[in-house]
Amino acid sequence: MSSGIRDNTASGRFELDVNGQIAFATYERRGPVLAIKYVEAPVPLRGTGAAGELMRGVAEIARAEGSKIAPLCGYASAWIRRHKEYHDLLA
């Protein structure tokens, strides 16, 4: 599990703090499936790899929990398609 990713269960999102800027992925737990609804990075973090680091952390959390991922947003879907090492996590 990525140590920099926190699960903010009250807000239903995973968060990555990069120098005070928060990239996040909203999610919904559907039994053993983690539905990733939306991924967002603040403008200063775009293009820095922060959203990719966030998604890698989410994937590692899902793997550690024995969960599958349903990437509902375009970014999450594209990210997991590009990272074959996580295809086994697809719901």
Automatic annotation (TrEMBL):
InterPro entries: Acyl_CoA_acyltransferase (IPR016181), Gcn5-rel_NAT (IPR045057), GNAT_YJDJ (IPR031165). Residues 6-91 form the N-acetyltransferase domain. SUPFAM superfamilies: Acyl-CoA N-acyltransferases (Nat). GO terms for molecular function: transferase activity. Pfam families: Acetyltransf_CG. Keywords: Transferase. This is N-acetyltransferase.
